[in-house]
């Protein structure tokens, strides 16, 4: 008898949730979708952020490239060296250079990602403001971001990018 009661309650709950879901869906009159990746790639603010970060970190990247070139040249010297003592000394130098490169690369990656996240957080705040303004102005009931699939007719990404670029 308890199993029947559980099944009846489960059926009632399922039916109720389906009914409330359809009522909720019917209340949505206007739906929009934003492709966040496109906003982060195509807006002027995003492009400006990328250029700023490139300028800010270019000297450190160049220093890493120099270490890499020196390391490759040293590898060639090691390969060509016949004297065991000299070769051992060059290998120790190469090992130290390799460690220095890895440390500086890790520091650069961490600093770059921190700065990029800071800048893109500001971009996201700006995008959210634009999306909310657009939703109010154009009467959207629901605007979604980052969905698995949605019909292209709901995509308002171009409008958001256009507003952000004003």
Model description:
The chain has 166 residues and is mostly helical. It has helices spanning 2-27, 36-42, 44-80, 84-138, 157-164; strands spanning 31-34, 142-145. The chain has a two-stranded parallel ribbon. It comes from Neisseria leonii. It holds the Pfam family OmpH. Keywords: Coiled coil, Signal. One of its GO terms (molecular function) is unfolded protein binding.
Q: Quaternary arrangement of the chains shown? A: single chain
* Euclidean distance between termini CA atoms: 67 Å
Describe the global form. elongated
The low-confidence runs, each spanning 5 or more residues with pLDDT under 50, are: none
Helix content: over 70%
- The strand count comes to 2
Total of helices:
5
**Classification by helices and strands:** mainly alpha
- Mean pLDDT reading: 87
Order of helices and strands: HEHHHEH
Task: Record the SSE blueprint.
Blueprint: H1 2-27, E1 31-34, H2 36-42, H3 44-80, H4 84-138, E2 142-145, H5 157-164
Parallel strand pairs: 1-2
Compose a concise summary of this entry.
By secondary structure, this protein is mostly helical.
Which terms would index this structure?
5 helices; 166 residues; two-stranded parallel ribbon; mainly alpha
């Amino acid at each position: 008898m308890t199993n029947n009661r559980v099944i009846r309650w489960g059926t009632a709950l399922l039916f109720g949730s389906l009914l409330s879901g359809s009522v909720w869906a019917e209340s949505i009159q206007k739906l929009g979708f934003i492709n966040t990746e496109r906003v982060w790639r195509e807006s002027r603010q995003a492009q400006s952020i990328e250029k700023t970060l490139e300028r800010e970190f270019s000297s450190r990247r160049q220093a890493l490239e120099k270490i890499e070139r020196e390391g490759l040249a040293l590898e060639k010297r090691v390969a060509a060296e016949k004297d065991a003592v000299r070769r051992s000394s060059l290998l120790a130098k190469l090992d130290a250079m390799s460690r220095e490169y890895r440390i500086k690369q890790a520091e650069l990656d961490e600093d770059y990602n921190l700065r990029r996240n800071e800048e893109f957080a500001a971009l996201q705040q700006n995008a959210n403001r634009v999306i909310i303004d657009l939703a109010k102005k154009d009467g959207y009931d629901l605007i979604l971001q980052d969905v698995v699939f949605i019909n292209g007719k709901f995509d308002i990404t171009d409008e958001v990018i256009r507003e952000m670029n004003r």
